[in-house]
Amino acid sequence: xxxxxxxxxxxxxxxxxxxxxxxxxxxxxxxxxxxxxxxxxxxxxxxxxxxxxxxxxxxxxxxxxxxxxxxxxxxxxxxxxxxxxx
Length: 86
Ligand SMILES: [Zn+2]
Description:
By secondary structure, the protein is an alpha+beta fold. It is 16% helix and 33% strand. The strands form two sheets. It has a four-stranded antiparallel beta sheet with strand order 3-4-5-6, with no helix packed on it. A two-stranded antiparallel sheet has the order 1-2. It is elongated. The chain binds zinc ion (ZN). Residues 49, 51-52, 54, 76, 78, 80 line the site of zinc ion.
């Protein structure tokens, strides 16, 4: 069974077949905001601190600096802070 949907902006007519099993926009946004909050927690990145040799953390894993080359802010338990290439 087809359903006719008219695009409110363009007036284009689309014929949509049987209902799809899709999540709602609210469900999607809730999932994304939860993963965004989790990604705000500093994450170990497998790179040795240049000052003490301990593993560095990505300070804000969800943030990438749009430099050329893109970079992430890193820090260490010893107090070192710096950047790593992505
Ligand atoms: Zn260190």
